[in-house]
Design brief:
The complex is a heterotrimer. In chain A, helix 4 packs antiparallel against helix 9 (174-203), helix 4 packs across helix 11 and helix 7 packs across helix 9 (174-203). Chain A has helices spanning 5-27, 29-32, 50-57, 59-93, 96-106, 113-127, 133-158, 162-169, 174-203, 206-211, 219-229, 234-262. In chain A, 78% of the residues lie in helices and 0% in strands. Chain A has one domain (49-262): MetI-like (MetI-like fold, Orthogonal Bundle), CATH 1.10.3720. By secondary structure, chain A is mainly α. Chain A contains twelve helices and no strands. The two termini of chain B are 21 Å apart. Chain B has helices spanning 26-64, 71-78, 80-113, 116-131, 134-145, 150-157, 169-192, 198-205, 210-238, 242-247, 255-265, 269-295. Chain B has twelve helices and no strands. In chain C, strand 1 and strand 2 form a beta hairpin. Chain C folds into two domains: 4-238, Rossmann fold (3-Layer(aba) Sandwich), CATH 3.40.50.300; 246-373, Nucleic acid-binding proteins (OB fold (Dihydrolipoamide Acetyltransferase, E2P)). Chain C has helices at 4-7, 52-60, 102-112, 117-130, 146-158, 176-193, 204-210, 228-233, 238-243, 367-373; strands at 14-23, 26-36, 41-45, 67-72, 75-76, 88-90, 164-168, 196-201, 213-218, 221-226, 248-250, 253-256, 261-265, 268-272, 282-286, 292-295, 306-317, 321-328, 333-339, 350-355, 361-364. By secondary structure, chain C is α+β, with helices and mostly antiparallel strands. In chain C, helix 3 crosses helix 4 (117-130). Helix content of chain C is 25%, strand content 33%. The chains are: A mainly alpha, B mainly alpha, C alpha+beta. Chains in contact: A-B, A-C, B-C. At the A-B interface, helix 1, helix 4, helix 5, helix 6 and helix 7 of A face helix 1, helix 3, helix 4, helix 5 and helix 6 of B.
């Protein structure tokens, strides 16, 4: 589309501002994490690594990180298995009821977190699941299934079903076809579903706030209670570490993915 | 005679040449359907156990605690404070949606016209906040917006009077809009990248000024993406909890916070449940009303 | 070539007896019977939705038959799953595995059959040689052109020496020049392998070039089976006559007696020495090279010939001659092909159309043939 120079500059400027708005606030935590004062007031003064040391030495912080990693890993596995099975099932049904089922399976994405939170809390109180690993994993799995379903369904959508027929005509049985043709071709969808599930659980806060207990806290819960309780700059250090870790992971993924595509 | 057997949708569903021939035959189809059900079942069981059942138990509590009846709903709709909060929840969500639409539209459009390298950068800018912990992002906004935060420090440095941002509706809207912006940009982008820009050129060649060509051709074609994004953002905003709780004050409380207070602080399960049901029903009704808008897609003409 | 020797004459016969296929209430195939000889090149020809691809899918085992008998190589294959039938299939859009190289694709059926590595390499090499794709073994399908992908698909389907090769419009997506070249390649490969080939197409020219015999499908039935020449010279139905080659169809008030049939078209009467056996309204079908054009005023050797008045409505120069469309008095169009050197005509010229009563075929009218073909 042809544009006048004025429109072009205006659009570019809008775009730049939005990009800045999206990314810049996240970076605020970085300088705050080196603040010598035990406060989150701006501007930070001096330089210290105390808050990083505190994160790794204080058992409250390190155990919550450990809990989050544990829960998220289990959730990623469970949600990937269940979500992938469901995506295959829906793909097979191909009818009006499959459309309804898909909508139902996606509802966890739109049900307000607090409503789900009090509901699960009520049920967990009755079944003594508050503050248990199992309770966390099941609740987070439910929240993560839609993401896996979307990712796997998307790759099934573009998967050419005739390749399965071709494999059958060449002598491959159902399981062999799945293992040698279907699986390798939808693997990227399953992998991204797995990552989404992990992040969904690792990042989950609302339901976690309701079903947490002093004995089992996840990292977001710990961060939240730290923010609301006191102005401990450790949260800034945690934020910086998380930010760096995810950036590194994504960068690594981009590099690996880019290399794979080139060869 | 056009095309070939496999590419001509002659008898949509019954056409033997389309789709997987294995799905053919009424008996085979029924078997596949059963198999599909079996595969979906495990996910469905989890969904029932930790979503359907809890929601049902909340609905039951809302009419049974402290005693059977509709007194909790009567209380909710009879208390002015609650109605104010309900209205505020909708107002804030609407503002967040408007801000998101206005910011996301040019951004998504630029994504479709720039070169591949710049596009990757722009997509990363959208994705980075997605991947950074939601709590940490809200923390960042606290650091920015608080009275002793980055924005006010900068204003003081420039000799300007400080602005009160934290614990105001403006602060809540700014923070929520940033968190929700990716949900607006991505659907818009996916629709816009499918728009054939030659259509705009066609309009120009027929004598339309650039602005006219934009409003009469490009904008209508991009609307499904706008609707989809707006609905997602509005619905997610209705249920927001963390951002308003940390950035808001008593004058910017949203419904979610009220629910949490009733249940955790006051142990009023009935009243909290009633509020939760109101919030849930509002969300579902909105979604049902808006679903046809999202599904509306202009059929593409010609070869793709 | 070395590969050809061990497989020669090893083609499987196919017997299809009263086979039907229903999808819900819709009959995709009804009562289809045909026999394919070992080593034969059989083409299923017909318009979209005529049931030819359905029949192919039934033989391949991608769909189950609803009724009837289906034998491959003398044994019933009803209920045998596709992967146990040992039948090579070439798909319309190639269906190459995008995550495997060309070599990997061709080796796939061999590794499924647990062929030892050394022999596998050798057979992959020979199959790629046969389709002239040896240099591409390490490429991925996405790096190949459509014609190259189709040749790889062919190599993959023949590498495990199946006694039967099915091809579903394999050249449908390619341009004309490439199609014509690949048609000859396929013919050569058929000759060298001696395998039975079943080929599906909607292109009658392609069918005539390739096949030993052609089965013409229409509306889920087989209209006629025969060599290209038989179908062209002796069409059994109006549909076959119109689908294979150009033709002129004459409709009019019919009257039959002991010596033949007369048709009155807009006041003029033409005769043929044939009579319609069985029911139906008779129509005449005449091939374009059997028609002759003459200027209206001229009187000539018209003795014993049928004569119809018309006007030239279109002239198409073909190089080896000319093709004329002639509008007749009743509004219908006749197609005439005249060889180089004959008198030429211009659009608008009034002409007489001449043909011998022996050259007119008499067939039962079938209006549905008009609609399916346009």
């Amino acid at each position: 589309m042809t544009m006048s120079p004025f429109t072009r500059v205006l659009l570019g400027l809008c775009c730049l501002l939005v990009a800045l708005w999206l990314v810049a606030p996240t970076l605020v935590v970085v300088p705050m994490s080196f603040n010598e004062n035990k406060s989150l007031a701006f501007p930070p003064k001096g330089f210290t690594l105390d808050w990083y040391a505190n994160f790794f030495s204080n058992p409250e912080w390190s155990s919550s990180l450990f809990n989050s990693l544990k829960v998220a890993s289990l959730v990623a596995v469970a949600a990937t298995v269940l979500g992938t099975l469901a995506a295959f099932g829906l793909d097979r049904m191909k009818s009006a009821s499959a459309g309804w089922l898909r909508m139902i399976l996606l509802t966890p994405m739109i049900v307000p977190g607090v409503v789900l939170g009090i509901g699960i809390y009520a049920v967990y109180l009755d079944t003594h699941l508050v503050g248990t690993l199992f309770g966390f994993v099941v609740a987070h799995t439910m929240l993560a299934i839609p993401f896996v379903l979307i990712a796997v369904s998307a790759s099934l959508e573009v998967f050419d079903k005739r390749l399965e027929l071709a494999a059958a005509s060449l002598g491959a049985g159902r399981w062999t076809t799945f293992r040698t043709v279907t699986m390798p071709l939808i693997a990227p969808g399953i992998l991204s579903g797995f990552l989404f599930a992990f992040v969904t659980s690792f990042d989950e806060i609302i339901v976690s706030l309701f079903i947490t207990s002093p004995y089992l806290k996840t990292l977001p819960v710990q961060i939240y209670s730290s923010i609301t309780r006191d102005a401990d700059p450790t949260v800034a250090a945690v934020g910086t570490i998380l930010f760096l870790a995810t950036t590194l992971l994504i960068g690594l993924g981009l590099v690996l993915f880019g290399r794979e595509r080139r060869t | 005679m056009s095309g070939s057997d496999a590419s001509t949708p002659a008898r949509s569903d019954a056409n033997p040449d389309r789709g997987s021939p294995r799905s053919g035959g009424s008996a085979g189809r029924a078997a596949l359907f059963r198999e599909g059900w079996l595969l979906v079942l495990p996910a469905l069981v989890v969904l029932c156990a930790v979503m359907a059942y809890p929601l049902a138990s909340i609905a039951v509590r809302s009419i049974s605690q402290p005693e059977w009846g509709l007194q909790n709903y009567a209380w909710f709709f009879g208390t002015p404070v609650n109605l104010t909060v309900l209205q505020r929840t909708f107002t804030i969500s609407a503002w967040v949606t408007v801000v998101c639409v206005l910011c996301a539209y040019p951004y998504a459009y630029v994504m479709t016209v720039v070169g591949p390298t710049l596009r990757v950068v722009l997509i990363l800018c959208v994705m980075v906040p997605f991947w950074v912990s939601g709590v940490v992002r809200t923390l960042s906004w606290v650091l920015l917006l608080q009275d002793s935060g980055a924005i006010n420090s900068a204003l003081r440095g420039l000799g300007l009077p400080p602005v009160r941002l934290i614990r105001t509706q403006t602060g809540v809207v700014i923070g929520m809009a940033q968190v929700l912006l990716p949900f607006m940009i991505l659907p818009m982008y996916s629709v816009m990248k499918g728009i054939d820009l030659r259509l705009v050129q066609a309009a120009r060649s027929l004598g339309a000024r650039p602005s006219r060509a934009f409003f009469s051709v490009y904008l209508p074609l991009s609307l499904p993406g706008v609707y989809a994004g707006a609905i997602i953002v509005f619905i997610l905003a209705l249920g927001f909890y963390i951002t308003p709780a940390l950035l808001g004050g008593p004058r910017s409380t949203m419904l979610s916070t009220l629910v949490q207070t009733q249940v955790l602080s006051l142990l009023q399960w009935g009243r909290g449940g009633a509020m939760g049901v109101v919030l849930l029903v509002a969300t579902l009704v909105l979604l049902a009303l808006a679903a046809p808008l999202m599904r509306q897609r202009h059929k593409k003409t010609g070869a793709r | 070539m070395a590969t050809a020797v061990p497989t020669l004459g090893r083609g499987a016969a196919i017997g299809i007896r009263s086979v039907s296929k229903h999808y819900g209430g819709f009959a995709a195939l009804s009562d289809v019977s045909l026999h394919i000889e070992p080593g034969e090149f059989m083409t299923f020809l017909g318009p979209s939705g005529s049931g030819k691809t359905t029949t192919l899918n039934l033989i391949a085992g991608f769909t189950d038959i609803s009724g009837g008998h289906l034998d491959v190589g003398g044994k019933s294959v009803v209920g045998v799953p596709a992967h146990k039938r040992n039948i090579g299939v070439v798909f319309q859009h190639y269906a190459l595995f995008p995550h495997m190289t060309v070599g990997g694709n061709v080796a796939y059926p061999l590794s499924l059959r647990r062929v030892p590595a050394a022999e596998r390499t050798e057979r992959v090499k020979r199959a790629l040689e046969m389709v002239k794709m040896t240099d591409f073994a390490h490429r991925y399908p996405s790096e190949l052109s459509g014609g190259q992908q189709q040749r790889v698909a062919l190599a993959r389907a023949i590498v495990f020496d199946p006694p039967l090769l099915l091809m579903d419009e394999p050249l449908g997506a390619l341009d004309k020049k490439l199609r014509e070249w690949l048609q000859l390649e396929i013919k050569r490969i058929h000759r060298e392998l001696g395998t039975t080939f079943v080929y599906v197409t909607h292109d009658q020219e392609e069918a005539l070039v390739l096949s030993d015999r052609i089965a013409v499908f229409n509306g889920g039935r087989v209209e006629q089976i025969g060599t290209g020449r038989q179908l062209y010279d002796e069409p059994a139905t109006l549909f076959v006559g119109r689908f294979i080659g150009d033709s002129t169809v004459l409709r009019g008030a019919a009257r039959s007696d002991g010596t033949g049939t007369a048709l009155t078209i807009a006041g003029e009467t033409v005769v043929t020495d044939k009579r319609l056996s069985g029911g139906g309204v008779p129509v005449m079908l005449i091939r374009p090279e059997k028609l002759r054009l003459q200027r209206r005023s001229a009187t000539g050797a018209g003795d014993g010939l049928n004569r119809l008045a018309g006007r030239i409505s279109e002239v198409i120069y073909l190089g080896s001659g000319s093709k004329y469309e002639v509008e007749l008095a009743d509004g219908s169009t006749a197609i005439v092909r005249s060889p180089l050197g004959d008198e030429s005509f211009a659009i608008g010229d009034p002409v007489d159309l001449l043909f011998s009563p022996a050259d007119a075929k008499l067939l039962a009218d079938d209006r549905s043939a008009d609609t399916t073909l346009t």
